[in-house]
Design brief:
The protein is α+β, with helices and mostly antiparallel strands. Helix content is 38%, strand content 24%. The protein is built from 24 helices and 35 strands. Strands 1, 2, 3, 4, 5, 6, 7, 8 and 9 form a 9-stranded mixed sheet that branches. A 6-stranded antiparallel barrel has the order 13-16-20-19-18-22.
Length: 881
């Protein structure tokens, strides 16, 4: 076996399959595009779904990749095991209806054992196969030459994710030797495929040959596929003779840097510290790549995962004695390790560091709040002479404040307490169930449609040059059946050429009509999408009979098309203007180009300020009025990149690409339609800016006539406002509004002063009525004040004058709501009286609830008629204390 670095292993794998006719696919971003079934890209095949289910037929049916992936279903195991990771790379080779078992198996063996490639000793490799898959077993034994005692049958060697493609699989194991054995020789798990450390699974080859149907049965796929996966981290540990994945060049530099930042800790000297080193190394990689791919910390979805990983790493940093923010300092280390395959990490390191550091600093504040909550919780349990910390608040510490359970258990143990782990686990299970229910119920992978994938009709798009063309009708599909003719109703059709644009890249499909030779409209075009083999497939509302091999006149709605063109070019200008104003970290995250408006999603840390939006808008309009020539250049991919054209990482490009260039300002890969000169756009106006997800913002804008109408409407509203304010000149509106606001502020202050005076007068009457109950003094009464703020002010007066031991005040609002406040003097708080307990005892009587500190608490309610009962209940409560 050769001595190889992780970068060499990755490259050698890709080079091998490239030599076997595979296209090398660049790793897609971790944030899935147009796939609601996935939170993250979680495997190599996740990026191939459109090929496997037949919705798209690839140009090359052989593909290989090294795909970065994230899985978060067992984050708690990371650091405690040898091979659990949140981020990992999956090396894979895929056949989409091309080669099958014999080629997949023989090539796997060649790559692993050939002296020209990995050169692993054949006797160290073991194979598992599905018992009913006699063909795979035959190929391994008879074609490849693997000894019978190195081939094992395993019932679980069948890949099945429910409805969709499925099939048997074959796993390859590496024998790491007796020194890695953690079981007795006669242990039933001591074999390749068993639960042991000696035999390490390094590759899984899935033979996708069945459709798993909704009724639970299986039928042969129209086109059989190969899907393989080799975990890079795992196979690197084999080549580098590492006991775990963490003792490899993928992780050790991160661990060593962490050790430098720690309080003298070293990896390999302390088992508990090693867990922390591993967690930090793993999480540093995951958050670096996730943020680099456009995700940002938040309280939901993938943003919550990032936040949780950062917080978990910070907590483990504290265990190593690291104070303050540190995780961001590991980003350049991650970038350097992965530079060969992912140079963009180092290019965006400053931005990624900024995001992580900001999140770490936020967590430091949250951490203090969490510690205070934990201290209060421990004190409460001990005061009640308990021995067990409840699981529900322990889960809140974990879920809201980022406290790992083991940390809460550690603090509890220091206080002589345990944690109700069963209750904690129940809360965790319920949270996971909520997360599953919140996820889309869309199918994870569709079932192949042989009808569409088998249509190989040649079809040419001519819409770049003309909006009217004659086309011969080649295929008609009605109710999933190929037919020769259609009379009326819905149908999908393909012509030998068409001027109709198929929806792609955010640009909506063209609309229009189909005419016969006499000029009569025989169908309306309601949608155009790409068929699996790339043809423009038209969805028609058929009005008159149509039949194949007949020529028709295809007419695009020019007004609709021209408006779409203007908005599409405007999105390119907007894209570049956002980078100019906000920074190069800003990336397109989606777009929609309609005839009446455009929508542009982009990554950014927070909302765009009004000032920056104004700058962006001004830049776009300047470029429109600069009469920039818009030209399209058709070239090869590498030449386009050298030109500086901007491309999305997840877009796939053919041998020839289209680059749309607006003067010297904007240059992007794009297959859409555009104006010839920016002056055709006329005017650009941003209508709104909002958030649509963690770290993703959305701008909606209008151009041309719609922009004029938007501004005209704004002008009309301004004129109406001026009339209401009795102003002649519109330009005087801002000054008049400021004057009105100042007058209102003055009136509000006068109102508040009067209310405060009235409240104070009422308070004097209430404060004079002091009751003595059970040796403690109580003031309880109803006052007429504006709300909770004035109740708090009265409570402050009570506190300053030390008028009684306990205070209860209530008020009914004009809206029919109730505000309650309770307060307890310091001496009685020390004696065990708590305002929070009192408020919980009386709030239900006004139809509400609340809480607060031991010295002061408040509540709201919706039953004013219960106020007197609540005040009476306060006295009864005090009798029991």
């Amino acid at each position: 076996m050769k001595q190889l670095t992780s970068a060499q292993i990755r490259q050698m794998y890709l080079d091998f399959f490239k030599s076997k006719g595979h296209d090398v696919m660049k790793s897609a971003p971790l944030v899935p595009k147009d796939d609601p079934t996935l939170l993250w890209i979680n495997s190599g095949v996740a990026t191939m779904k459109k090929y496997f289910d037949g919705s798209v037929v690839p140009k090359n049916h052989r593909i290989t990749s090294s795909q970065k992936s994230i899985r978060t279903n067992d984050i708690e195991n990371v650091g405690h095991t040898a091979r659990h990771h949140t981020l990992f790379e999956m090396l894979g080779n895929f056949s989409i209806g091309d080669y099958f078992k014999e080629e997949a198996i023989t090539w796997a063996w060649e790559l692993l054992t050939s002296p020209d490639w990995f050169a692993i000793e054949p006797e160290k490799l073991y194979i598992t196969v599905y018992p009913k898959d006699t063909e795979a077993k035959r190929v391994w034994h008879e074609v490849v030459g693997v000894a019978s005692d190195h081939i094992y049958e395993a019932e679980d060697n069948f890949w099945d994710i429910g409805e969709g493609p499925s099939g048997p699989d074959s796993e390859i194991f590496y024998d790491r030797g007796q020194e890695f054995s953690d079981l007795a020789e006669d242990d039933p798990e001591n074999y390749p495929g068993g639960e042991n450390e000696r035999y390490l699974e390094i590759w899984n080859i899935v033979f996708s040959e069945f459709n798993h149907k909704p009724d639970g049965t299986y039928e042969p796929l129209p086109h059989k596929n190969i899907d393989t996966g080799m975990g890079l981290e795992r196979v690197v540990s084999v080549f580098q003779h590492a006991r775990t994945n963490f003792e490899t060049d993928l992780f050790l530099p991160i661990i060593e840097k962490t050790a430098e930042l720690s309080a003298g800790k070293k990896y390999g000297q302390d088992k508990e510290a090693d867990v922390s080193f591993k967690v930090i190394a793993d999480h540093a990689r995951a958050v670096t790549f996730a943020i680099g791919d456009g995700a940002l910390p938040s309280n939901e979805g993938r943003g919550y995962v990032i936040r949780r990983l950062i917080r978990r790493a910070v907590m483990h940093g504290q265990k190593l004695g690291i104070k303050g923010s540190f995780l961001y300092q590991l980003v350049p280390v991650v970038g350097k390790i992965m530079e060969a395959a992912y140079p963009e990490v180092l290019q965006e390191a400053d931005y990624i560091e900024k995001v992580i550091k900001l999140e770490e600093e936020r967590f430091q504040v949250t951490l203090k709040d969490g510690m205070n909550l934990l201290d209060d919780l421990i004190a409460k349990v001990k005061a009640e002479q308990g021995t067990v910390l409840p699981g529900k608040p322990a889960f809140k510490l974990y879920d809201t404040y980022g406290f790992p359970l083991e940390l809460t258990e550690e603090y509890a143990a220091d206080a002589g307490l345990t944690v109700a782990k069963a209750e904690f686990d129940q809360e965790m299970a319920e949270q996971k169930e909520r997360a599953r229910n919140a996820r889309s119920n869309a199918k994870s992978m569709g079932v192949q449609n042989a009808l569409l994938t088998d249509i190989k009709t040649e079809s040419k798009y001519v819409g770049y040059e003309q909006l009217t063309a004659n086309g011969v009708l080649k295929d008609i599909i009605v109710a999933d059946q190929l037919v020769d003719q259609v009379t009326t109703g819905k149908a999908q059709v393909i012509f030998d050429q068409t001027p109709f644009y198929a929806e792609m890249g955010g640009q909506v499909a063209d609309q229009g009509v189909i005419e016969d030779k006499a000029g009569q409209v025989v169908a309306k075009v309601v949608d155009v999408q790409h068929a699996p083999n790339g043809q423009n497939m038209h969805t028609l509302e058929v009005l008159q009979p149509m039949q194949v091999e007949t020529s028709y006149r295809l007419v695009v709605d020019q007004t609709f098309h021209d408006k779409v063109k203007k908005n599409h070019t405007a999105t390119h200008l907007l894209d570049q203007a956002l980078r100019d104003v906000l920074g190069e970290h800003t990336h397109q995250a989606g777009s929609l180009v309609e005839p009446t408006y455009l929508r542009f999603d982009f990554t950014n840390l927070g909302a765009v300020t009004a000032e920056d939006l104004a700058k962006v808008e001004a830049i776009v309009n300047d470029k429109i009025w600069a009469n920039l020539k818009v030209e399209t250049i058709v070239t090869d991919l590498e030449s386009a990149k050298k030109m500086g054209a901007i491309a999305l990482f997840d877009d796939k490009y053919g041998e020839k690409v289209r680059v749309v260039k607006a003067g010297d300002y904007s240059m992007e890969f794009c297959g859409g339609n555009h104006v010839a000169n920016t002056n055709e756009i006329g005017l650009f106006k941003i209508v709104s800016e909002s958030g649509v997800g963690a770290g993703v913002r959305r701008i909606e804008a209008v151009t041309s006539r719609e922009a004029f109408e938007f501004l005209a409407n704004r002008d009309r509203l301004l004129q109406e406002t001026a009339a209401e304010l009795k102003i002649v000149q519109v330009k005087d509106v801002p000054a008049k509004v400021k004057q009105v606001q100042a007058n209102l502020k003055e009136l509000e202050q006068q109102k508040q002063a009067l209310e405060a005076k009235f409240a104070s007068q009422q308070a004097q009457s209430v404060f004079e009525k002091v009751q003595t109950i059970n040796g403690k003094t109580l003031i309880a009464g109803q006052v007429q004040v504006a709300g909770m703020n004035q109740l708090r002010q009265l409570a402050d007066q009570w506190k300053a004058k030390q008028l009684s031991d306990v205070l209860v005040l209530a008020t009914a609002t004009a809206e029919g709501k109730v505000n309650l406040i309770t307060a307890v003097c310091p001496d009685q708080v020390k004696a065990g009286l708590k305002a929070g307990d009192l408020i919980k005892a009386i709030a239900p009587l006004v139809g509400g609830g609340g809480g607060g500190r031991p010295d002061m608490a408040q509540a709201g309610g919706k039953k004013p008629e219960g106020i007197q009962a609540a005040l009476s209940q306060a006295a009864k409560w005090l009798e029991t204390k």
